[in-house]
Q: What sequence folds into this?
């Protein structure tokens, strides 16, 4: 699977039913004339295994949402990274604001989960983002830089971070392009000093109307999409709206020599 071109990662959150999956099997990524390099669908854990079968001929990849730091044990209601990998996931989203907020996950907890993902040979997508009050207090760059360095696994050589302003998620509100570029640059600066090759996705109210402009922002290597990618039609609309070949391969692609 090529790593070239921007990524589109679809986060279903707690949506999707078994009966919905057949419709996903009819997507053919190569017929959608898209410049997107990887398209990853992240359903609830229960749907991973059946969706893996449904996606077999589509060109779409499978990811998961959240994992426990331990591989197994007495952790009622949790799922391990190893279990997600066995069910067919190649990636896992950790540190989403819907985990950091209501579940009180700290940077240290997110780092443990991201480290567990690597142990299970999953690619972690580590989410960071400021709240509205942090933004209004002028703290955006400091918050996202601290979350990024505090949440990534120690010593990792490559990583994916999703910059998701908490106030932009599900709200229909998106920061100005300059603001996104500045926050992404702050994340890149903070992580660069740790020597990690970084891919940065933007997330928060991405839609077919906005995806093209968002993917043109300096430093943005892809998008993490919730509501707009819950149906095959929604995903197809996003892919068709994405710019084709508009950006040079990111510096990460050359670092990794992806082909
Ligand atoms: P949204 O969600 O696209 O519905 O705003 C994005 C996310 O929370 O990952």
A:
């Amino acid at each position: 699977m090529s790593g070239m071109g921007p990524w589109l990662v679809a986060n279903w959150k707690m949506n999707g039913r078994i009966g919905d999956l057949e419709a996903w099997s009819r997507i053919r990524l190569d017929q959608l004339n898209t410049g997107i390099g990887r398209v990853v669908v992240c359903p609830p854990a229960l749907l991973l295994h059946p969706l893996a079968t449904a996606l077999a001929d589509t060109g779409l990849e499978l990811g998961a949402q959240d994992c426990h730091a331990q591989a197994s044990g007495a952790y009622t209601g949790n799922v391990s990274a190893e279990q997600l990998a066995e069910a067919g996931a190649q990636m896992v989203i950790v540190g989403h604001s819907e985990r950091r907020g209501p579940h009180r996950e700290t940077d240290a907890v997110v780092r443990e989960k991201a480290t567990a993902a690597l142990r299970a040979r999953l690619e972690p997508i580590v989410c960071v983002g400021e709240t509205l009050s942090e933004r209004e207090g002028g703290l955006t760059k400091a918050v996202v830089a601290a979350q990024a360095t505090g949440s990534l696994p120690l010593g990792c050589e490559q990583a994916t971070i999703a910059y998701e302003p908490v106030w932009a998620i599900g709200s229909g509100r998106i920061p100005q392009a300059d603001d996104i570029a500045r926050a992404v640059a702050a994340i890149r600066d903070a992580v660069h000093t740790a020597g990690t090759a970084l891919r940065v996705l933007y997330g928060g109210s991405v839609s077919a109307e906005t995806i093209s402009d968002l993917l043109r922002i300096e430093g943005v290597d892809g998008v993490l999409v919730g509501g707009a990618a819950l149906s095959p039609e929604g995903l197809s609309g996003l892919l068709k709206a994405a710019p084709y070949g508009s950006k040079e391969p990111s510096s990460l692609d050359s670092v990794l020599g992806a082909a």
Q: What stands out?
A: The chain is about 35% helix and 15% strand. The pocket of 2-phosphoglycolic acid is lined by residues 11, 164, 169-170, 203-206, 224-228 (CB under 6 Å).
